[in-house]
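hiii so um. not sure if this is the right channel but i have a protein structure encoded as tokens and i wanna go backwards to a sequence. like what aa goes where. can anyone help
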């Protein structure tokens, strides 16, 4: 990782590594195009950049479903905010349908 990205996104990359045991490459930090969480053989979720490229929003569908999905934002300063997830089972509400539409629009699911 080049020094400027290491300094600029230090806290964000630490939190991303802590949550997903995955590094963000220089290319991912420079281009801010988003990407996958996991790897191509076992994709767990995706992330996108937002807030003028100073935060990452992610959605992860955990394979062991007893853990449930995870949806959140990691800010440049390392702050981590959890957001609503889609239900695994049960009756689907209007709010959950709206959440699904928003996540699809963003490309997170």
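sure thing!! here u go:
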């Amino acid at each position: 990782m080049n020094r400027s990205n290491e300094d600029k996104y230090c806290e964000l990359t630490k939190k991303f590594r802590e949550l997903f045991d995955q590094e963000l490459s220089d290319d991912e930090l420079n281009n801010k195009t988003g990407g996958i969480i996991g790897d191509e053989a076992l994709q767990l979720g995706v992330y996108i950049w937002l807030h003028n490229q100073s935060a990452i929003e992610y959605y992860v569908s955990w394979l062991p479903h007893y853990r449930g999905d995870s949806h959140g934002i990691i800010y440049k300063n390392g702050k981590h905010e959890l957001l609503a997830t889609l239900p695994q089972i049960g009756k689907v509400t209007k709010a959950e349908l709206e959440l699904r539409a928003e996540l699809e629009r963003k490309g997170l699911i």
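oh and The radius of gyration is 14 Å.
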